[in-house]
Structures are given as structure tokens and as C-alpha cells.
Amino acid sequence: RESGSIRIFFYVENRKESTMSITPHKLGVHKVLKHIPLNAIFDFRAKQRLAKAVNIADLRLCAKQRAHKMVFDYLDAGADDEISLRRGKDAYSELEMHFHVLSGLKPPLDLRTKIFGEDVNLPFFACPTAGNRMFHWEGEEAAAKAAQHHGTLYGLSSLATTGITEIGEIHDGPKVFQLYVWKDRELVKEVIAKAKEGGFGALALTVDFTWYGNRERDIRNEFTIPPKYTPQQVIEAIRKPAWTYDFLSHDEYNYACINTEVPADSLASFVNSQIMPEFDWRDAEWLLGEWNGPSAIKGVCRPDDAVRAVESGFTTMWVSNHGARQLETSPATIDVLPSIREAVGPDVEIIMDGGVQRGTDICKALALGADSVGIGKPYLYGLAAGGTEGVIKAIEILKVELDRAMGLLGTGTVDDLKKRGPGLIKRRVSGSGARDYPDVNAAARGYGGGVI
Questions:
Q1: Residue 149: active-site member
Q2: What CA–CA distance (Å, rounded) separates 246 from 442?
Q3: pTM for the full model?
Q4: Distances in Å between the alpha carbon of 250 and those of 29, 36, 39, 101, 244?
């Protein structure tokens, strides 16, 4: 299909939908509520909880308390039985840190490095994730402000609810634009041209989203964007007044990087019409030719795929299993990372995401072959818990934990950690020790996370 015909299709379909239902936004309720500043009242308890949070597990509970159930479960869930989701976290607990002593280090350490060839203050960053305004009205703007505050990379999803231009006005540092495997090449060319004009210096092609994963929490919750006004959803909205007032007092969100005439409740129809399951290496090479700049292939879990990606022209390998939200029982990314580093050699940039909950997790990933680490759920928990303030806090928590872990390990810089890392991180020989965390029994098992 050509780009114009797709826009016509969505316009017609959305006109059909608009005649079939009446919603508060169609009635203009948000235009009235935005002039009634009740947010501070509804958010009072949420801010108290956020102030008490000391780790990412706490932020998760803060997000669960503030966000609509279907929104929190969309963020928190994995595919099928969520085996990969649990394994992705537990895999870090199987890796021990064999530290050096008397290293002559003192805090704070130098955490600076390069990502996509650009200088950043931290070796980790907020991954591009879709539809941030469903979690909090500030959406992607909050994540961009937090990245600017901490001096690190910002990643914007092509299914974002904030536009490329708006992000460029907030974040003047290094940025990566994420793209899915779309059918319409004219639309692809149009979007990546906007990204270049908006100051995005790198492109990440997501290749593990050719089918939509089976996320059963979403099915049970009747998840839609925006929510359907069923009794189940209305009751839950009443239980979460801070999130609900945010939603009702701000404009409906749309897919701002694609076409502002396409409302965000058309996610399923857009994915079904545009995602291209048959997208192959030749299509990827065409995209690289159109972009002609630093580029990552996002969703690599096999060494042979990584080697082929390098041969095809990608400059960065992004080791990821889409947050364990796609193929159930896909491997934990930290487990496959060393084999991919060995396959591509020392000079190819590697980003890794998946399962990160602690600064020690980031430390282990850097030690085992990653040049930088992407975080998804941790910063989205912060966003859902408290907007910009919550995202800044999420990144700060991980920054402090990483600084402490590197210092105690005996590595003073990111480069030092990457060079000496393989000799410092070793897999447990016996015993499981999986933390299966956060969970209600965490405190009884000696874990501090997850209790406020």
C-alpha cells in the first residue's frame, strides 16, 4: 500500500469508530477539566509513596498503586506464562561478582562513555517504548527531560505519543529513533527523514516484533488504548483517581511520529496493516541505505544473526528479547551476551537490555560484553509512579547502585570494567538462588526490595 492510501484507510476507519461511541474526550470533558487543577490533590499520596521509594522494586509498587490496572499490567507483563520474564531477572542472580580489594577508588566514579559514538554521562539509558502517555500524561517528554537531566542517550519509539520535534526541543543530546519492520516504504522514508531533521543521530530497527506477542494479562483486562468504557474499566478508574484525572483532563493521545490524525486506539489495526512479517535481510539493507548513518539491529539473541547483521551494514548489535513480551522461553539476554561479543569481536558496539532491576545488573552486563545497557520497565515504573520526577528518580537509583557496584568490584571507569569484566563475573557452580523478585515473600527470604 502507498502511504496516502494507508492514511485514507485509517481516516475512514476512525470516522466509523467515532460514530459508534461517545467518550468523555469526544464530549470535550478534557477541555473543562484542564482548567480545574485537581492533580495535586489526587497525586498527594502518590508523591508520598514516590518519596519513600528506595529501589526499582519500590517504584514498581508505586506505579501499581497509581496506574489503572490494565495500564500497569501492560507495562509489567510478559508473554504467555511469563517464564522468560522471570528468567530474565533471575539470570543476573546466578552471576557472582568476584571483587578486588584495596583498589584506591573513592566515589563518585567516572561513569562516562560513548553510545553510537556520542559522549554520554551514563552507560545506560531509557529504551524507546511505545505510548508513554498511557502511563502518565507527561509521557515521552518526562523520559526526555530525565535523560537531559542525567546527560544520557534518549530513545524515541516510532509509536510514541510525543512528536519528534517536541523531543528535540527538550533533549539536545544524543538520540536514537526506533523503527519497526513496516511495509510502506514511503512512510518509512518520511519518518526517518523527520528523525534526521529532529536531531536523531542513530536509528534502531526492531526485528523481533514481526508478530504481536501473546500477552494474556492484556486479554483478561480487555486492554485497549484508550480504555473502553466498560463497567470493569470504569470501576478500576474510580479506584485510581490520580491516573484517571490525568487521562480525563488532557488531550487524547495519538501516534505523533506517524500521523497525528491516527488516534492511539488504533494500535491493533495499525500493527496488522503495517507490520511486515516477511521483512528480511534485503529489506534491512534497503533501510540502511536510506538512513546512511549509525544503526542498530534491535532484537538479536544469536551469534550467527549478529555476524550477519554486521555483514549487512549495521554498526551496533542490540541484544534484546523485547522485554520477554514476544517469544516465550526466549533466552535471558545476559546469558547470550558473551557469545555475541565473542562472535562479533571487540570493536562492534553492543547494547543490551532485558531483566535489569539493579545497578549490579548493569555492572554485570558491561563486564560481560555490553558497551551500554537499555532499561525499559525500570524507568516506565518511575513514569507511571510520578511523571518526570519518577523517571529522574529511577535513573538516579540505578546510577547510585552502579557507582557503588563498580567501586566495590574494584573498577574505576566503564572502560576498566569492560576490559577486566570477564575475570570478575563468574557463574554460580551450584544452587539456584533465583530471586524471583519482586514478590510477597522477598523480605522473608532476605531481599529488601518490594516493601514500602
A1: no
A2: 32
A3: 0.89
A4: 9, 11, 11, 54, 10
